[in-house]
Design goal:
This is Alpha/beta fold hydrolase. It contains 15 helices and 8 strands. By secondary structure, the protein is an alpha/beta fold. The protein has a single domain, classed as Rossmann fold (3-Layer(aba) Sandwich), CATH 3.40.50.1820. Strand 1 and strand 2 form a beta hairpin.
Length: 322
């Protein structure tokens, strides 16, 4: 990755590690679980080569960034302040923000929480949806009464942490494969919650390398999560009730900045949302300029089909520049 630089910034009371490449209009890319700045490696190369300044942080709780122990430190006030603080630390007034998974959850909220700091959105895998009528933990518990639900399993501090921290290589191989286009993740729902951990319900993955993930790339993930554990990432799930409360007034505020959305055709998020997973997003995001489904990709669309995703993002960015 030519001209890629790394630095650690003092932001919002924590240390935030960022990878940065290129010059020009700034783009901030926010990963989800279980991700790292490295999740965006293909976009760092392609977007910087096209004349953009691409900034990919290890989000709070991950990689080389600080990982506060208390789940309350992962609420929307803290995570928005991280992104605003990042812009301030880099002397950036306004940026294009991209998000994937939990990063997309955060980025959907940024225009309402930090008006004026967001030029546009590039969102992957998680469509904008209306505010839940009940606390997320209540919805998660209902799901768990029907079948295994990782969102509920992750809520109790220490339980999932012990399982995943004890087998980081096995967990990462299983989850990256399970959520990819090579598998149907919702088969996990065939298992009951009672008596099962996450490793019990995730499928056995094929041997590496995979078409979209090399052994050296996988080893980077394993090395980072072996060192840090998964608690920081799990705390994003444990902060969902707080985020829901803090978003009471702002969640359904229309997203009017230019927005592009990309997902894989085999992403379980879309499967869970029914026949028209984008109906609510079209109503909630009047700035939506395009919705793209990449054939054959799963949840990690930007890694599984980087050329297709990069072409979509570059076309969107060119429209902004025009």
């Amino acid at each position: 990755m030519p001209n890629l630089t790394h630095r650690t910034l003092e932001v919002n009371g924590i240390e935030l590690h960022v990878a940065e490449q290129g010059t020009g209009q700034p783009i901030v890319l926010c990963h989800g679980f279980p991700g790292l700045w490295f999740t965006w490696r293909h976009q760092l190369d392609a977007l910087s080569a096209a004349g953009y300044r691409v900034i990919a942080p290890d989000m709070r709780g991950y990689g080389r960034s600080s990982a506060p122990a208390d789940a309350s430190s992962y609420d929307r006030e803290h995570t928005v302040a991280d992104m605003v603080g990042l812009l301030d630390a880099l002397d950036i007034d306004q940026a294009v923000f991209g998000g994937h998974d939990f990063g997309a959850h955060l980025v959907w909220d940024l225009p309402a929480w930090a008006p004026g700091r967001v030029r546009a959105l590039m969102q992957l895998s998680v469509p904008r949806t209306p505010r839940l009528p009940v606390q997320p933990s209540v919805a998660f518990a209902y799901l768990a009464s029907q079948h295994f639900a990782h969102v509920h399993y992750f809520q109790e501090p220490g339980v999932a942490d012990a399982e995943l921290n004890g087998s980081p290589r096995e967990f990462l191989a299983r989850i990256l494969h399970a959520l990819s286009g090579a598998n149907r993740y919702l088969d996990c729902w065939e298992f009951p919650s009672e008596g099962n951990g996450y490793l019990d319900v995730l499928p056995e993955p094929p041997a590496l390398p995979w078409p979209w993930l090399g052994e050296d790339e996988f080893d980077y993930y394993v090395g980072e999560f072996t060192r840090t554990g998964f608690t920081g990432g799990l705390n994003w799930y444990r902060a969902e009730d707080a985020v829901w409360t803090q978003n009471e007034v702002l969640h359904d505020k229309p997203v009017e900045v230019p927005t592009v959305f990309v997902a894989g055709s085999k992403d379980p998020v879309l499967e869970m949302m029914g026949r028209d997973p984008f109906a609510a997003m079209r109503a909630l995001v009047p700035g939506l300029t395009g919705t793209h489904v990449v054939e054959g990709a799963g949840h990690f669309v930007q890694m599984e089909k980087p050329d297709a995703v990069n072409a979509i993002l570059l076309d969107f960015l060119a429209g902004l520049d025009g």
